[in-house]
Amino acid sequence: MDFLLDMKTIILSLGVGHLFTVILISAYWRHHKKDAKITSFFFAKCTQALAWLLLALRGGIPDWLSISMAYTLLFVGTSLEAIAMLMLVKAFDRGARKVYISLMALSIGGFHLLLHLYNTGAARIGFASLGIALFLVIPAYRLFKESNASLLMRMIGALYFLVFLSLTCRGVAALTSVNNMDIFTPGVAQTFSFLALYLVMILGNTGFVLLLKEQADQELIRMASLDELTGILNRRTFVARAMQCLDMYAKKKKPITLLLFDVDHFKKINDTYGHNIGDQVLRHLVDTIKGVLGEGDLFGRYGGDEFAILFPGMDEAESSAVAEQIKRTTREAAAADLPVTFTLSMGLLTVVPDRHTQLDELYIACDKALYRAKENGRDGAARVWSENREALPS
């Protein structure tokens, strides 16, 4: 079976495909010009469309357009696409920026030096193929190996890696060929590398849009789950996750501790220093307490200056020690970094839950303990003892 396809047709289809992508994305990009990753991807498609169309016109237009300009645009466009993908996974840092600026400079400069010193079709194809492959290997790796990568990210990463391999094989085949090659010269390596480029054009474009959608969905979930001011769980999400935790530890027959606390005289802080300082107090408080909590602890804002923490697997002695550490740490941090000092009042309850344990009942009990701490002079913790106390580990 003959797998050799007409190269000019494939190249022209690549140009037309990128051109239609530009037309479709332009309507979306007009309203998202400030989004760097979308802007980078849009201009990547623009330059790639023009590059492939110029390459397809080889022989009918001057060489400086179909070779020099076309390959320059191809290097720039591939680099911008790789940068957009890295931005999408938040991996385009200062180091990556330097790498891609250097790769673009070396690719464009090296290619034009090659045109003056050794201008053959095989040399051009080999250099361009290996250069473009280098642009793609970093996003391929980051998309596929990211620790929290979704299945979609891994699939797109694998796709880019496939293109990297095909371009590398094409580059090596061109540089080691005994016969001079041109971009339109038929061959197995040529055919499969262009098919891979065609595949990544279709699936890569779709994948980029799907990744944008996936990230937007994740951001909506995050916004719906977290408190806007402090960045911790809002009340609804805290309650939902705490109920799941109660069910889990009821099956394990291990203790959990609920800690409820608020800022003493918080209204006075707002009235005296203003709500801006009050917001700073809450953000500073949350950031300080996060440093004390363990990975599995649930931390949520119930509303106003009232917060709740659920400590899975923590008994009375351990939770009392953590409560004291929170109280001490927040007092020291507040004195050092804020124009106002503050203290906390806390209520604690430790139980070994069963299938009848309700979070609302635990909250009511902790709330009573919290007010007892306030009645005792504030800046302290009070504990309410559960009926399950004898079941707790000593």
UniProtKB/TrEMBL annotation:
Residues 254-386 form the GGDEF domain. The chain crosses the membrane at residues 12-29, 41-61, 67-88, 100-119, 125-144, 151-173, 193-212. It is an enzyme of class 2 (transferase). Its EC number is 2.7.7.65. It comes from the Bacteria. PROSITE patterns: GGDEF. One of its GO terms (molecular function) is diguanylate cyclase activity. Keywords: Membrane, Nucleotidyltransferase, Transferase, Transmembrane, Transmembrane helix. Pfam families: GGDEF. NCBIfam families: GGDEF. This is GGDEF domain-containing protein. It comes from Brevibacillus brevis.
